[in-house]
Amino acid sequence: METRPASKAGSWYKRLPEDLMEDLDERFAKVPETVDGSSLPIPGARMIIAPHAGYEYSGDTAAWAYSCLDLSKAKRVFILGPSHTYGLSGCAVTKFQRYATPFGNFTVDRDTIERIKEAGQMADVPPRNDVAEHSLEMHLPFLYKRCQQTFKEPEEFPTVVPIIVGSLSRSKEKDIGRVLLSYLKDEENAFIISSDFCHWGDRFDYAVYAPDGDIGRLTTLYKHSQRPPGPPIYETIRLVDEAAMEAVKSGSHDAFVDNLRLTGNTVCGRHPIGVAMAALELYAQELNDENRSRFKIVRYARSSEVVWPDDSSVSYVSAYAVL
């Protein structure tokens, strides 16, 4: 197969183009006309963080990030997401020529893929894992709609550069960030960083609790634990997510890595975010402009408000960076 099918259509999001467009329109309509004092899209906001869960859960949050995304000069869009289907050390690139959506196909930029692959010593994503993976696919309908809003014809749409970012050390994230730096500097490139935030609950092996509100002294709850007498569990989830978001906003790659080591927060796209932050930090050193090359958070939501230890929740964050 040369075209990766839209494997989650009909389950994680609507399959029929007219139904899917109606759903997206409703979600975009909930975003205010201005964000951070700017009309939308935000000029120069060529990088976003957006979630990748089913649209029922994360679609409204994703619409905020995509409303900010500036594609006006984009010739290609890098999509960086984590692997949920197989263990991966390092990064891997797609072998497909096209990525399908219910609206139409995106063309994969094979030339850029090959250059990135060589420079970053990346592997190929096994096609069956590529098809099963949702962290990249869930962004494509949102991206297609934004392309329709930006360009006159599908022939003008940017190509895509899909990259799966697996397990990376702190230093390896910096290495990949350095590979991406020259692409960040080019205004013809845009970037989508795919990540959900805290996955809380026994089924995620992460059920921390901060009885005194101190994330430096987290305890562990268990599925059959009693309901804690202190603050509700969702307050702890908020605290660990807010700490991660503050680290993201700090512009410091090390601060982000250190925060996740402290809390163990189950940010599934921590490595894609880490790579992006490493690249942004390098770019910021050249720009000397605090309004650029740094993430700004625009939306935070959770799938549920957990109060019982046998419950679960996934958090969603949308952010943008002006490059």
From TrEMBL:
Segments traversing the membrane: none
InterPro entries for this protein: MEMO1_fam
HAMAP family linked: MEMO1 (MF_00055)
Annotated family: Belongs to the MEMO1 family.
The protein, known as: Uncharacterized protein
